[in-house]
Request: fold
Amino acid sequence: MSVVPFDRREGWIWQDGALVPWREARLHVLSHGLHYGSTVFEGERAYDGVIFKSREHSERFRRSAELLDFEIPYSAEEICAAKALCVERNGDPNVYVRPVAWRGSEMMAVAAPDSTIHVAIAVWPWPSMFNVVEKMRGIYLDIAEWRRPDPASAPSAAKAAGLYMIATMSKHAAERKGYADALMLDWQGRIAECTGANVFFTRGGQLHTPIADCFLDGITRRTVIELARRRGIGTVERRIMPGELSSFDECFLCGTGAEITPVAGIGPHRYRPGDVSLMMVEDYATEVRRRPGSDA
Ligand code: PMP
Reply:
Protein backbone atom coordinates (compact mmCIF):
# COMPACT_ATOMS: atom_id res chain seq x y z
CA MET A 1 0.00 0.00 0.00
CA SER A 2 1.18 3.52 -0.78
CA VAL A 3 2.71 5.40 2.12
CA VAL A 4 1.56 8.78 0.84
CA PRO A 5 -0.97 10.04 3.43
CA PHE A 6 -4.47 10.54 2.12
CA ASP A 7 -4.37 14.32 2.49
CA ARG A 8 -1.23 14.63 0.37
CA ARG A 9 -2.24 12.81 -2.78
CA GLU A 10 -2.89 14.19 -6.22
CA GLY A 11 -6.15 14.32 -8.11
CA TRP A 12 -9.61 15.76 -7.72
CA ILE A 13 -12.14 15.58 -4.93
CA TRP A 14 -15.75 16.61 -5.36
CA GLN A 15 -16.71 18.89 -2.47
CA ASP A 16 -20.01 20.69 -1.99
CA GLY A 17 -20.90 20.79 -5.66
CA ALA A 18 -17.59 21.11 -7.52
CA LEU A 19 -14.31 19.32 -8.13
CA VAL A 20 -11.42 20.82 -6.16
CA PRO A 21 -7.72 19.90 -6.25
CA TRP A 22 -7.20 16.92 -3.90
CA ARG A 23 -5.13 18.81 -1.28
CA GLU A 24 -7.60 21.68 -1.08
CA ALA A 25 -10.52 19.51 0.03
CA ARG A 26 -10.65 20.47 3.72
CA LEU A 27 -12.92 20.84 6.72
CA HIS A 28 -12.40 23.06 9.75
CA VAL A 29 -11.32 21.53 13.08
CA LEU A 30 -14.52 22.96 14.55
CA SER A 31 -16.96 20.82 12.60
CA HIS A 32 -19.92 19.13 14.26
CA GLY A 33 -19.31 15.97 12.27
CA LEU A 34 -15.85 15.60 13.77
CA HIS A 35 -16.76 16.35 17.40
CA TYR A 36 -20.20 14.77 17.70
CA GLY A 37 -20.10 12.04 15.07
CA SER A 38 -22.75 13.57 12.79
CA THR A 39 -21.07 11.94 9.80
CA VAL A 40 -22.21 9.27 7.36
CA PHE A 41 -20.35 7.74 4.47
CA GLU A 42 -20.42 5.16 1.70
CA GLY A 43 -17.93 2.68 0.32
CA GLU A 44 -18.28 1.68 -3.33
CA ARG A 45 -16.16 0.36 -6.14
CA ALA A 46 -15.86 1.28 -9.77
CA TYR A 47 -15.00 -1.62 -12.08
CA ASP A 48 -13.75 -0.67 -15.53
CA GLY A 49 -15.11 2.84 -15.04
CA VAL A 50 -18.60 1.94 -13.79
CA ILE A 51 -19.58 2.06 -10.11
CA PHE A 52 -21.28 -1.16 -9.03
CA LYS A 53 -24.83 -0.48 -7.75
CA SER A 54 -24.15 3.25 -7.63
CA ARG A 55 -27.82 4.15 -7.27
CA GLU A 56 -28.30 1.80 -4.27
CA HIS A 57 -25.27 3.30 -2.57
CA SER A 58 -26.51 6.86 -3.21
CA GLU A 59 -29.88 5.97 -1.73
CA ARG A 60 -28.31 4.33 1.31
CA PHE A 61 -26.12 7.41 1.75
CA ARG A 62 -29.19 9.65 1.88
CA ARG A 63 -31.01 7.20 4.18
CA SER A 64 -28.04 7.03 6.58
CA ALA A 65 -28.14 10.82 6.90
CA GLU A 66 -31.89 10.79 7.53
CA LEU A 67 -31.36 8.26 10.32
CA LEU A 68 -28.92 10.77 11.85
CA ASP A 69 -31.57 13.50 11.44
CA PHE A 70 -30.04 15.42 8.58
CA GLU A 71 -30.71 15.65 4.89
CA ILE A 72 -28.04 15.43 2.22
CA PRO A 73 -28.67 18.46 -0.01
CA TYR A 74 -28.31 16.45 -3.25
CA SER A 75 -30.64 13.95 -4.87
CA ALA A 76 -29.58 10.36 -5.50
CA GLU A 77 -29.20 11.26 -9.21
CA GLU A 78 -26.96 14.21 -8.39
CA ILE A 79 -24.82 12.07 -6.09
CA CYS A 80 -24.50 9.38 -8.79
CA ALA A 81 -23.46 12.02 -11.34
CA ALA A 82 -20.88 13.49 -8.95
CA LYS A 83 -19.40 10.04 -8.24
CA ALA A 84 -19.17 9.26 -11.95
CA LEU A 85 -17.47 12.61 -12.56
CA CYS A 86 -14.94 11.88 -9.81
CA VAL A 87 -14.09 8.47 -11.27
CA GLU A 88 -13.71 9.94 -14.73
CA ARG A 89 -11.61 12.97 -13.73
CA ASN A 90 -9.20 10.93 -11.63
CA GLY A 91 -8.44 8.71 -14.59
CA ASP A 92 -8.29 5.26 -12.95
CA PRO A 93 -11.29 3.12 -13.93
CA ASN A 94 -10.83 0.65 -11.04
CA VAL A 95 -11.10 2.55 -7.77
CA TYR A 96 -12.74 2.59 -4.37
CA VAL A 97 -15.28 5.42 -4.07
CA ARG A 98 -15.88 7.24 -0.78
CA PRO A 99 -18.74 9.72 -0.42
CA VAL A 100 -18.93 11.36 3.03
CA ALA A 101 -21.40 13.86 4.51
CA TRP A 102 -21.15 15.78 7.77
CA ARG A 103 -22.62 18.62 9.78
CA GLY A 104 -20.51 21.75 9.46
CA SER A 105 -19.37 24.53 11.80
CA GLU A 106 -22.34 26.80 12.43
CA MET A 107 -23.25 25.17 15.74
CA MET A 108 -20.80 23.49 18.11
CA ALA A 109 -23.01 21.81 20.71
CA VAL A 110 -24.98 18.58 20.86
CA ALA A 111 -27.97 20.17 19.14
CA ALA A 112 -27.01 21.54 15.75
CA PRO A 113 -30.14 21.54 13.61
CA ASP A 114 -29.10 24.56 11.54
CA SER A 115 -25.70 23.31 10.44
CA THR A 116 -24.75 23.34 6.80
CA ILE A 117 -24.49 19.78 5.49
CA HIS A 118 -21.26 19.21 3.61
CA VAL A 119 -20.63 16.42 1.12
CA ALA A 120 -17.37 15.23 -0.38
CA ILE A 121 -16.50 12.36 -2.73
CA ALA A 122 -13.01 10.94 -3.15
CA VAL A 123 -11.77 7.95 -5.12
CA TRP A 124 -8.54 6.00 -4.79
CA PRO A 125 -7.07 2.66 -5.85
CA TRP A 126 -7.69 -0.03 -3.19
CA PRO A 127 -7.04 -3.47 -4.66
CA SER A 128 -8.19 -5.41 -1.61
CA MET A 129 -9.15 -4.95 2.03
CA PHE A 130 -6.99 -7.98 2.86
CA ASN A 131 -3.60 -9.20 1.69
CA VAL A 132 -4.34 -10.72 -1.71
CA VAL A 133 -2.41 -14.00 -1.28
CA GLU A 134 -3.75 -14.53 2.23
CA LYS A 135 -7.23 -13.70 0.99
CA MET A 136 -7.46 -16.58 -1.48
CA ARG A 137 -6.15 -19.09 1.07
CA GLY A 138 -8.69 -17.84 3.56
CA ILE A 139 -8.18 -15.32 6.33
CA TYR A 140 -8.26 -15.95 10.08
CA LEU A 141 -10.65 -14.09 12.36
CA ASP A 142 -10.62 -13.48 16.09
CA ILE A 143 -13.89 -12.97 17.97
CA ALA A 144 -14.19 -9.34 19.08
CA GLU A 145 -14.88 -8.34 22.65
CA TRP A 146 -16.99 -5.39 21.52
CA ARG A 147 -20.51 -6.21 20.41
CA ARG A 148 -22.81 -4.64 17.85
CA PRO A 149 -25.22 -2.48 19.83
CA ASP A 150 -28.94 -3.02 20.35
CA PRO A 151 -30.74 -1.15 17.52
CA ALA A 152 -32.59 0.71 20.28
CA SER A 153 -29.22 2.19 21.34
CA ALA A 154 -27.67 3.12 17.99
CA PRO A 155 -28.80 3.84 14.42
CA SER A 156 -27.51 0.45 13.27
CA ALA A 157 -29.00 0.61 9.77
CA ALA A 158 -26.96 3.75 9.01
CA LYS A 159 -23.46 3.67 7.62
CA ALA A 160 -22.52 6.20 10.29
CA ALA A 161 -18.94 7.03 11.15
CA GLY A 162 -19.66 6.72 14.88
CA LEU A 163 -20.54 3.04 14.54
CA TYR A 164 -17.00 2.32 13.33
CA MET A 165 -15.40 3.28 16.64
CA ILE A 166 -15.85 -0.24 18.06
CA ALA A 167 -14.93 -1.75 14.70
CA THR A 168 -11.56 0.00 14.64
CA MET A 169 -10.82 -1.02 18.24
CA SER A 170 -11.83 -4.61 17.49
CA LYS A 171 -9.76 -4.85 14.32
CA HIS A 172 -6.71 -3.36 16.03
CA ALA A 173 -7.00 -5.89 18.87
CA ALA A 174 -7.35 -8.77 16.38
CA GLU A 175 -4.37 -7.62 14.29
CA ARG A 176 -2.20 -7.34 17.39
CA LYS A 177 -2.89 -11.04 17.97
CA GLY A 178 -1.97 -11.91 14.37
CA TYR A 179 -5.50 -12.23 12.97
CA ALA A 180 -6.63 -10.48 9.79
CA ASP A 181 -9.87 -9.20 11.34
CA ALA A 182 -12.47 -9.80 14.03
CA LEU A 183 -15.93 -11.33 13.89
CA MET A 184 -18.34 -9.31 15.99
CA LEU A 185 -21.25 -10.69 18.00
CA ASP A 186 -24.37 -8.63 18.53
CA TRP A 187 -25.70 -7.28 21.82
CA GLN A 188 -27.43 -10.65 22.45
CA GLY A 189 -24.30 -12.69 21.80
CA ARG A 190 -25.32 -13.87 18.33
CA ILE A 191 -23.00 -13.76 15.34
CA ALA A 192 -23.39 -10.40 13.62
CA GLU A 193 -20.74 -9.42 11.07
CA CYS A 194 -17.11 -8.52 10.64
CA THR A 195 -15.72 -5.04 11.36
CA GLY A 196 -16.29 -3.95 7.75
CA ALA A 197 -18.03 -6.84 5.96
CA ASN A 198 -20.94 -9.27 6.34
CA VAL A 199 -20.46 -12.99 6.95
CA PHE A 200 -21.85 -16.15 5.30
CA PHE A 201 -21.48 -19.82 6.21
CA THR A 202 -22.26 -22.96 4.22
CA ARG A 203 -23.74 -26.19 5.44
CA GLY A 204 -25.64 -28.92 3.58
CA GLY A 205 -25.56 -27.10 0.26
CA GLN A 206 -27.13 -23.93 1.65
CA LEU A 207 -25.87 -20.55 2.74
CA HIS A 208 -26.51 -19.36 6.26
CA THR A 209 -26.17 -15.72 7.29
CA PRO A 210 -27.31 -13.69 10.30
CA ILE A 211 -30.46 -11.56 10.03
CA ALA A 212 -29.31 -7.97 9.45
CA ASP A 213 -31.43 -6.35 12.15
CA CYS A 214 -28.71 -4.66 14.19
CA PHE A 215 -25.90 -4.17 11.67
CA LEU A 216 -25.44 -3.02 8.09
CA ASP A 217 -27.47 -5.02 5.55
CA GLY A 218 -24.70 -4.83 2.97
CA ILE A 219 -25.35 -4.27 -0.69
CA THR A 220 -22.85 -7.08 -1.36
CA ARG A 221 -24.74 -9.30 1.12
CA ARG A 222 -27.91 -8.88 -0.92
CA THR A 223 -25.94 -9.45 -4.14
CA VAL A 224 -24.55 -12.73 -2.73
CA ILE A 225 -28.04 -13.94 -1.83
CA GLU A 226 -29.16 -13.18 -5.41
CA LEU A 227 -26.09 -14.80 -7.03
CA ALA A 228 -26.61 -17.92 -4.90
CA ARG A 229 -30.30 -17.99 -5.87
CA ARG A 230 -29.30 -17.94 -9.56
CA ARG A 231 -27.16 -21.03 -8.87
CA GLY A 232 -30.07 -22.75 -7.16
CA ILE A 233 -28.48 -22.28 -3.73
CA GLY A 234 -30.83 -21.07 -1.00
CA THR A 235 -29.87 -18.72 1.82
CA VAL A 236 -31.20 -19.14 5.34
CA GLU A 237 -31.25 -15.81 7.17
CA ARG A 238 -31.48 -16.63 10.84
CA ARG A 239 -30.06 -16.19 14.32
CA ILE A 240 -26.67 -17.92 14.49
CA MET A 241 -25.02 -18.54 17.85
CA PRO A 242 -21.22 -18.95 18.27
CA GLY A 243 -21.84 -22.54 19.47
CA GLU A 244 -22.66 -23.41 15.86
CA LEU A 245 -19.33 -22.24 14.44
CA SER A 246 -17.88 -25.77 14.41
CA SER A 247 -20.81 -27.13 12.37
CA PHE A 248 -20.24 -25.17 9.15
CA ASP A 249 -18.23 -26.33 6.11
CA GLU A 250 -17.19 -23.01 4.61
CA CYS A 251 -17.23 -19.38 5.61
CA PHE A 252 -16.69 -16.17 3.65
CA LEU A 253 -16.97 -12.45 4.16
CA CYS A 254 -18.56 -10.07 1.71
CA GLY A 255 -18.56 -6.32 1.30
CA THR A 256 -17.58 -3.63 -1.13
CA GLY A 257 -14.04 -3.48 0.24
CA ALA A 258 -13.69 -7.20 1.06
CA GLU A 259 -15.54 -8.31 -2.10
CA ILE A 260 -15.75 -12.08 -1.43
CA THR A 261 -13.06 -13.13 1.03
CA PRO A 262 -12.87 -16.81 2.06
CA VAL A 263 -12.33 -17.43 5.80
CA ALA A 264 -10.05 -20.28 6.92
CA GLY A 265 -10.58 -19.91 10.65
CA ILE A 266 -12.57 -18.18 13.36
CA GLY A 267 -10.94 -18.52 16.77
CA PRO A 268 -10.32 -22.29 17.17
CA HIS A 269 -12.65 -23.28 14.30
CA ARG A 270 -11.29 -24.18 10.86
CA TYR A 271 -12.94 -23.94 7.45
CA ARG A 272 -11.94 -25.10 4.02
CA PRO A 273 -12.20 -22.35 1.40
CA GLY A 274 -14.12 -24.77 -0.82
CA ASP A 275 -16.33 -24.90 -3.88
CA VAL A 276 -19.09 -22.58 -2.75
CA SER A 277 -16.75 -19.79 -1.60
CA LEU A 278 -14.60 -20.01 -4.72
CA MET A 279 -17.66 -20.06 -6.97
CA MET A 280 -18.94 -16.95 -5.18
CA VAL A 281 -15.57 -15.22 -5.64
CA GLU A 282 -15.89 -15.81 -9.39
CA ASP A 283 -19.60 -15.08 -9.70
CA TYR A 284 -19.16 -11.79 -7.86
CA ALA A 285 -16.16 -10.80 -9.99
CA THR A 286 -18.28 -11.43 -13.10
CA GLU A 287 -21.36 -9.68 -11.73
CA VAL A 288 -19.58 -6.41 -10.86
CA ARG A 289 -18.38 -6.13 -14.48
CA ARG A 290 -21.65 -7.21 -16.09
CA ARG A 291 -23.22 -4.39 -18.06
CA PRO A 292 -26.96 -4.10 -18.67
CA GLY A 293 -27.75 -5.81 -21.95
CA SER A 294 -24.65 -8.02 -21.86
CA ASP A 295 -25.14 -11.78 -21.76
CA ALA A 296 -22.51 -12.46 -19.10
N1 PMP B 1 -20.79 -4.18 7.50
C1 PMP B 1 -19.95 -3.17 7.72
C2 PMP B 1 -19.69 -2.77 9.13
C3 PMP B 1 -19.32 -2.52 6.65
O1 PMP B 1 -18.47 -1.52 6.88
C4 PMP B 1 -19.58 -2.95 5.34
C5 PMP B 1 -18.90 -2.28 4.19
N2 PMP B 1 -19.62 -1.13 3.79
C6 PMP B 1 -20.47 -4.00 5.15
C7 PMP B 1 -21.07 -4.60 6.25
C8 PMP B 1 -20.82 -4.47 3.76
O2 PMP B 1 -21.59 -3.50 3.13
P1 PMP B 1 -21.59 -3.33 1.54
O3 PMP B 1 -21.74 -4.70 0.99
O4 PMP B 1 -22.79 -2.48 1.27
O5 PMP B 1 -20.31 -2.71 1.17
User: Anything to note?
Assistant: Residues 6-124 form a domain with the D-amino Acid Aminotransferase; Chain A, domain 1 fold (CATH 3.30.470.10).
